[in-house]
Amino acid sequence: MTDHRLAWILLAPALAVLGGLTVYPALWVLWLSFQYRVPVFSISRWAGLDHYAFLAVDTRFWNAAWVTGVFTGCSVALECGLGLAMALALRGQSRGRRVALALLLLAWALPSVVTAKMFEWLYHPAGGLVNFLVGGRTINWLGDPDLALPALIAADVWRATPFVTLLCFARLLTIPADLYEAAQVDGAAGLQAFARITWPLVRPILLVALLFRTLDALRAFDIMFVLTGGGPAGATETLTVYAYRALFQTLQMGFGSAIGVVVFAFVMVVAVAYLWVINRQDQTA
Amino acid sequence: MARRPARAVLLVPLLLLALTAGGCGERAGSGALVTLVFKHAKILGPADPLPGLLRRFEARHPGVRVQSEALTWSSDEQHQFYVINLEGGSPPFDVMMLDLIWVPEFARAGWILDLTPFVPAAERDAHFPTAIEPAVQGGRLWALPWFMNVGLLYYRRDLLAKYGFTPPETYEALAAQVRRIRAGEGDPRLDGYLWQGKQYEGGMVNVLEALWANGARLLDDVGRPFPERERARESLAFLRGLIESGVSPAWVTAADEELTRRPFGDGRAIFLRNWPYALDLFELPDSRVRGKVGVAPLPRLRHGPVGAASTGGAHLAVSARTRHRTLAVDLTCFLTSEAAQRAMTEGAALRPSRPSLYQDAALVARDPSLPALLGLMEKGRPRPITPYYLMLSTTLQPEFSAVLVGRKSPDQAIRDGTAQVEHLLRAITP
Amino acid sequence: MRASRVRDGLVLLALAGYAAPFFWQAMTSLRPDTELLPLTHLWPTRLTLSHYDVVFRQSLMPRALVNSLGIALLSTLLAVGLGALAAYALARLPVRGRSLILLAMIAATAFPQIATVSPLYLLMRALGLRDTWLALILANGSFTLPLVTWLLAGFIREIPRALEEAAVVDGAGRLATLRWVVLPLAAPGIASAALLAFLFSWNEFLFAYSLTATEASRTVPVALALFPGVFEVPWGDIAAASLLASLPPILIVVGFQRYLVRGLLAGALRE
User: Fold this and answer.
1) Cβ–Cβ contact B81 with C under 8 A
2) What percent helix, strand, coil does chain B show, rounded to 5?
3) Which of A21, A134, B136, C23 shows the greatest Cβ crowding within 10 Å of its Cβ?
């Protein structure tokens, strides 16, 4: 048997599964988005671009897009800032590094439903630790439309920051100590050393972290679905939650699929944009 | 999904049996070993009567075991559970408890058995018409009422009496009473009027009641949204106004039934909109408002009637795919029978769907509020009876919620809601 | 040295503070119901196992734990099994359109679940697989397959070719080489990829929520999200259930940290 042939035999099962369960559904969702499809009532009709035309003027859709944008922007920015800071703090750690990483990665490894339930309880108006710590007030964190999104972002930041920390930390460890010693000889210490040595070396990996976190944040679903269900007053309804509600609560497979396609398009645009930035950076570096 | 034609061969003898039995479809068991699965929400109250009732049913049907399985607690999740199980599959249950607003949807989807042949007219008439109407779709009966709810205005009898007030007939009067009493009491912890404004079906109920109180409807006769747009706008503005003027605390926009029931039960509110279950809790021996609570019809706004309160409650239906059709129908009939509803009324914080029980001497002796509730139940209004109700409701909830918290003007919410509902209707009505 | 020891201690303390929400949940799971609502003092006056008792006796959690464990293990097996074969081909064999396949693999990892959940739902319904383990095994397995393949291809590339060539010289065929030389050498990498795949399946919610209906296939996150209660949410029971749901992630973070970190870094640094 030739290696060519063997290669395809080895690849075939994986490609078949991917084709059947990822590519085929992806094409199918596009097809569904051009239809009125309500399986519960046996409705299946061609809709053309109706769903997309409606989305263009649908205030709920634009609200969801805005919420998704705010959620993504804020949580990713906080995660990257906090993640880098924590990595810097961890760098000098000589003892207990394993314990430190375990404490850190725990937040990342927990199921997001657990995280959501945990924060729901922390935010509880009467029984939550948060209100207890702010002096026994009864702030309704998740019920107030101005507080719900920040509360949600805080939960996501808690969960995802360790990922950024880990990436930055791993990069920091590879920076040779003599670089800093040399800088010190030149009279650069503290912030200056950070700006001259640390930052340029960490920046590329931070960009990668940014890419991954942005893609994840755009696709986030579990945390808002379990924590707020998109409420109050749509203040935390992201595109994914809107899509889910259309698909499985109002049972409109066609319309919901159209929102899913839009999410897919957003994710792809962001991914391509980042890859372009990263590529350019590699070339100029 | 075509409905299966009813099996006439099976139905005729059953119908005869049903007629001779007086109630619906009750008969002795066949003796074969069978397990019926009954899905329902947990029954609350001093003594859960359900296990006893099921054992009684089993005693009458030798060889039959009824396995009762509890659903999750939120109505949305229950619905999700049913949809996923019933849609195109063979559900692992035979008899199910349904929120009455789902019956038309489940009937249209072909998930539940047509009960028309099993239920004689007299049995139908023994329930409140407002309880039977939501179970009728296309002229057929799809479910039987199990218990019944209606929106009530709870008020603090002691406080109203102290200031010489009678229960308000208009919301204007309610607001005036709140202001007067709060000024007189001087207690900053005493809230005015509590209701449910959270983004969920209960919030929808409160908005509907405000629409009706002003003579507005959600849908017209052909299903178009907001036929009385100006009145609907007034209703929404009124609800928001309750919060802006301080008659209702801002937190009602995140409140469900229990979150409003508790402060009122602690004596920290003058008025409360809630279902009848709260009455039992207010009259418990350790309740702080025991003996101080009255119930009245919901007030009206400018253009509507007094007491336009939404009905609620649960129906029992039989899965269209059950393998034990006759037994499942029997169980449904048994659990909704007068005897069973009597047991439910005695043991649980639930109200029957049969008017006769509201004047039953033994029951009234235990629960003196029953006769007063009778009139309110009869006046109750169903939420729009359409297979698409839940779709409409979940579509509109965020819009109404946005008005209540002040993120959208009533006008804007009605415009946006109309656009979404029309898009939804385009899909389901060609 | 003294100063650095103090500093190390402070950082650890700060990290313990970071994990506080989890410890709080753990304490809630042991707190008696009467001390939950309202919260009047930080430390409970006594501890109780009653919430765990409720979870084990009256909830669907035990069944969900079995489902989750089975589904996560089998979907990991599926992803790693198919992924290892594909990765070997991509790393070592001449494949026309290799870069295209690799690009498609990256693109597939960026796929939003919400976009595929509706066709998957219709597909599983058509195949009669709704509410079965198999549906979730296929869904989770295919969702993690791109990442696993990508990781393993990287790890296999790191194995010196000379070792393989030596085996070929000894007369072993390609497949025998793969079985007896490559896979054992790639074992740490396989462990990393498997851990990530397992974690994903264990934590996955959207597919599980949409494709399951009953306790026959309901996984832990779904059981937790739908935890039943009457009137009030049973916070203590939920805390106990969420602690059980956290056991495998805790075990991985504590016991297999090295592999997890390696997998995470390799996964993020693919270029």
Assistant:
1) yes
2) 50, 15, 35
3) A21
Question: Could you check whether the bond before residue B263 is cis, i.e. omega within 30 degrees of 0?
Answer: no
What is the three-class DSSP state of B64?
strand
Sorted by where each starts, the structural domains of chain B and their CATH numbers stand as 8-149+311-379 (3.40.190.10), 152-309+388-428 (3.40.190.10)
Torsion over CA: B174, B175, B177, B178 (sign): positive
Distance in angstroms (rounded) separating the CA atoms of residues B72 and A14: 39
Is C110–A25 a contact, with Cβ atoms under 8 angstroms apart? no
In whole angstroms, what separates CA C15 from the centre of its chain? 23
Residue of C nearest to B278 (CA): C231
- Among B166, B160, B128, B164, which residue's Cα sits nearest to residue B144? B128
Residue B42, phi then psi, degrees to nearest 5: -65, 140
**Alpha carbon A163 to chain centroid, angstroms:** 11
All residues of chain B having their beta carbon less than 8 Å from the beta carbon of residue C228 are 42, 70-73
ipTM over cut 0.85: yes
Give the sign of the dihedral formed by CA A58, CA A62, CA A65, CA A71. Answer: negative
- Give chain C's domains with CATH numbers: 22-268 (1.10.3720.10)
Q: How confident is the model at residue B32 (pLDDT cuts 50, 70, 90)?
A: low
Cα–Cα distances (Å) from A105 to A109, A164, C16, C268, in that order, read 6, 11, 11, 15
pLDDT at residue B2 tops 60: no
Which residues have a Cβ under 8 Å from the Cβ of B122 and sit 6 or more positions away?
none
Identity of the residue numbered B119: V
Residue A188 has a CB neighbour count (10 Å cut-off) of 16
The closest of C148, C233, C153, C232 to C198, measured between CA atoms, is: C148
CB C183 within 8 A of CB C236: no
User: What does the mean pLDDT of chain C come to?
Assistant: 89
pLDDT tens for A252-276 read: 899 999 999 999 999 989 888 877 8
H or E segment at B37? strand B34-40
The token pair that represents C28 in the structure block? 């809630």
Residues of chain C with Cβ-Cβ distance to B85 below 8 Å are: 131, 213-214
Closest by Cβ to B398, choosing from A237, A248, A254: A237
The dihedral through the CA atoms of C180, C182, C187, C188 has a sign that is positive
> Left (φ > 0), alpha (ψ -120 to 50) or beta: where does A8 sit?
alpha
Query: Which pTM was predicted?
Result: 0.87
- Partnered with residue B310 across adjacent β-strands are B381
Residue type, B269: A
Put simply, the answer to whether B73 touches C125 (Cβ < 8 Å) is no
Would an 8 Å CB–CB cutoff place C173 in contact with chain B?
no
- Give, in order, the Cα–Cα distances in Å from C9 to each of B129, C3, C5, C13, C253: 72, 10, 6, 6, 20
Percentage above 90 pLDDT, chain B: 71
Rg (C-alpha) for chain B, rounded Å, is 22
Q: Which of C80, C118, C150, C201 to mutate to test the interface with A (most CBs of A within 10 A)?
A: C118
Q: Does C231 touch chain B (CB under 8 A)?
A: yes
A254 interfacial to chain B (CB closer than 8 Å): yes
Tokens 């099994």 locate to: C81
Q: Answer whether B349's CB lies under 8 Å from B281's CB.
A: yes
Q: Which residue of A has its CA nearest to C204?
A: A111
- Domains in chain A, start-ordered, CATH in brackets? 28-284 (1.10.3720.10)
Query: Residue B366: its pLDDT value, please?
Result: 87
**Six-digit token pair at A90?**
């961890």
Q: Which of C1, C5, C6, C15 is the best mutation test for A, with the most CBs of A within 10 A?
A: C15
Query: In Å, how far is B41's CA from the nearest CA of chain C?
Result: 9
Going by the DSSP 8-state scheme, the letter that residue C38 receives in this structure is S
- Please tell me chain A's helix, strand, coil percentages from 3-state DSSP, rounded to the nearest 5: 75, 5, 20
State phi, psi for B139 to the nearest 5 degrees. Answer: 75, 0
